[in-house]
Design goal:
The chain has a domain at about 100-250 and about 350-455: Rossmann fold. Helices cover about 45% and strands about 10% of the residues. The protein has 20 helices and nine strands. The protein has helices at about 1-20, 55-70, 85-100, 105-110, 160-165, 200-210, 225-235, 255-265, 275-280, 285-295, 295-300, 305-315, 315-330, 345, 350-365, 365-375, 385, 410-415, 430-435, 435-455, and strands at about 50, 115-120, 125-130, 140-145, 175-180, 215-220, 240-245, 395-400, 420-425. A nine-stranded mixed beta sheet has the order 1-2-3-5-4-6-7-8-9, sandwiched between helices. The longest helix is centred in the first third of the chain and has 21 residues, at about 1-20. The protein is globular and about 60 Å long. One of its GO terms (cellular component) is endoplasmic reticulum membrane.
Length: about 450
């Protein structure tokens, strides 16, 4: 008992010291120019242009020709998805893509929401802007920006958007949703210069929201979207009323986290660890080290030489599909590695999965999307944003099959105003796409909590 009390006093004193030291820190950035060549004289063009996803017979003819020319490779016996995407099952996916997948119908689905483009810092930024059809009398829609990650896209949010803009419960809040494509992803133009990282994306998205007339708004993100929206909260905390994330790996592990790893299994209550925390964290070598190594090979490639492997993926639709869809298998549930079909259609439909792949294919964005890793990791792991806490009210949805489990204690080291921490009953890395209803409910719960406190 004495040891627990002493440890509690030491950790509490340390946390108090760190909080007081960093409370006034704000992330800073200078405006950039990411277009080709030198910036032109005069003011930036702020025109907002409608955009529609389209296709052509030539585009489909080229795709089918490349699919038909693929060279099958046999998977090892009894390998399932443990060596990557199983080649036997890949033939079935490719056959469906070539013969049954209706890209024209999926384009109609993509265009059900209004798309736009506008030029910011020299590059075209693509985004969806979905306004609610009806807002209850005496209320206003709550602006919310939602940011995707890799290898996802704005399409991840298509099941979530109507739950937020047209909620069935009359007591729920009504949202006005903006879903941009990160520059270099989907239909946003890729930066033409080196150095475009998450902070640069955050700065551009702040400009986008202001251009749309939002002085204050909420933000949600997962994967890279977690970091971009976190940077938005660090850059201009007065504009971000609340931040909701479903991915929050520790950016700069400190002493409290280290002590919790070393002592948490023996003294779980001291660190607020639950049974789920213990199950997901221990044994540490297996859960935090070995598992991370198994699933991070892609990251080392993309953080060092993205253009090399990207060139092959940009030429081969089958290679691209295998590279992207393997993540939608293992990152949804690591046990899916032991299934012949990777469990792909247990959580998603092939139409939705291939629609996301097609966004990468038709836009030719796989290389530029992979470069985002190089730009973020290439500057080192000690960037200013990794040291600055977030003092914007934050909600965290903790999905049980997320790539890295983050206990509440770890989340509060970065997000000092944690308003909600929700252990979710199911779901993995692509939670917004996999479990849109659960995600919508948690965004509602978090936003209601923040709005009540502001009243």
């Amino acid at each position: 008992m004495f040891i627990e009390v002493l440890l509690g006093l030491v950790i509490g004193g340390l946390i108090f010291f760190l909080v007081q030291r960093s409370r006034n820190q704000v992330l800073k950035i200078e405006d950039g120019w990411w277009g080709a060549g030198a910036p032109p004289d005069g003011e930036e063009d702020v025109t907002i242009r409608p955009f529609r996803v389209t296709t052509s017979d030539e585009e489909l003819k080229d795709l089918y020709s490349r699919i038909d020319q693929t060279r099958p490779v046999a998977s090892l016996e009894d390998s399932q998805f443990n060596y990557g995407f199983n080649s036997h099952y890949l033939l079935k996916v490719v056959s469906y893509w070539r013969n049954d997948f209706d890209w024209g119908r999926q384009i109609d689905k993509l265009n059900q929401y209004p798309h736009f483009k506008t030029k910011i810092e020299g590059i075209d930024i693509h985004y969806l802007h979905v306004k609610p059809k009806k807002v209850p009398d005496g209320t206003t829609a709550i602006p919310l920006i939602m940011v995707h990650g890799w290898p996802g896209s704005f399409y991840e949010f298509y099941g979530l958007i109507p739950l937020l803009t047209e909620p069935s419960d009359p007591d729920d809040l009504v949202f006005e949703v903006v879903c941009p494509s990160i520059p270099g992803y989907g239909f946003s133009e890729a930066p033409h210069k080196k150095g475009f990282d998450s902070v640069c994306a955050a700065n551009i998205f702040h400009k986008l929201m202001k251009r749309l007339g939002f002085q204050q708004f909420y933000a949600h993100g997962g994967d890279w979207g977690w970091l971009v929206t976190t940077n938005m909260a660090q850059l201009d905390p007065k504009s971000v009323k609340g931040l909701h994330v479903n991915f929050a790996p520790p950016s700069k592990p400190g002493l409290p986290m280290t002590l919790s790893i070393l002592l948490g299994r023996r003294f779980p209550k001291l660190f607020g660890f639950t049974d789920v925390d213990i199950q997901r964290l221990y044994p540490c070598m297996e859960k935090l080290v070995v598992e991370s190594i198994k699933e991070s090979g892609y990251m080392h490639i993309q953080a060092t030489k993205p253009d090399t492997v990207g060139r092959g993926l940009n030429d081969s639709p089958v290679g691209l599909a295998a590279y992207i869809l393997e993540k939608f298998s293992t990152w949804t549930d690591r046990d899916f590695r032991n299934l012949e079909d990777g469990g792909l259609t247990r959580k998603f439909s092939l139409d939705d999965l291939l629609t996301n792949v097609m966004i990468y294919w038709v836009s030719g964005c796989i290389i530029s999307s992979m470069r985002f890793y190089k730009e973020n990791f290439g500057k080192g792991l000690d960037q200013p944003h990794s040291k600055i806490p977030v003092y914007v009210p934050t909600g965290f949805a903790c999905f049980p099959n997320e790539l890295m489990h983050t206990p509440k204690l770890w989340v509060t080291q970065k997000y000092r105003k944690l308003a909600t921490y929700t252990p979710m009953v199911r779901g993995g890395h692509f939670a917004a796409m996999e479990e849109p209803q659960l995600m919508a409910e948690d965004i509602q719960k978090f936003t209601k909590t923040v709005e009540k406190k502001k009243q």
